[in-house]
Design brief:
single chain, 123 residues, mainly beta
Length: 123
């Protein structure tokens, strides 16, 4: 059984930074792409970023390009999302995910989800 644990959310002022982290258990971490999604109240869950198993290829949602950076440390079985220049519209519950498919257009066929970590950006 795959278990995903994400953390690192919090409340920051606009322009601030946060780093999210995620670990997956029950999988060989470096065999799998990993992704970050978010869901704001009243909105559908959307993909924020995705990274392939080796970390060499990434995908970003247009609105976060240049502000967010996804990375992974396969030796530590950990995925990161560095979020800079945060905006109030980035406020959402952020979810780490283990996808079955990675492409330049993002990740699909999610195998497992984390429990979510709340990011709140105040104006």
């Amino acid at each position: 059984q795959v278990q995903v644990v994400d953390s690192g959310g919090g409340t920051v002022q606009a322009g601030g930074s946060l780093t999210l982290a995620c670990t997956a258990f029950g999988v060989t971490f470096d065999d799998w792409a990993m992704g970050w999604f978010r869901q704001a109240p009243g909105k559908e869950r959307e993909q924020v970023s995705c990274i392939n198993s080796s970390g060499e290829r990434t995908y970003y949602k247009d609105s976060v390009k240049g502000r967010f950076t996804v990375s992974r440390d396969n030796a530590r079985n950990t995925l990161y999302l560095q979020m800079n220049s945060l905006k109030p519209e980035d406020t959402a519950m952020y979810y780490c995910a283990v996808p079955q498919v990675f492409s330049v257009g993002g990740c699909t066929s999610i195998r497992a989800w984390g429990q979510g970590t709340q990011v709140t950006v105040s104006a």
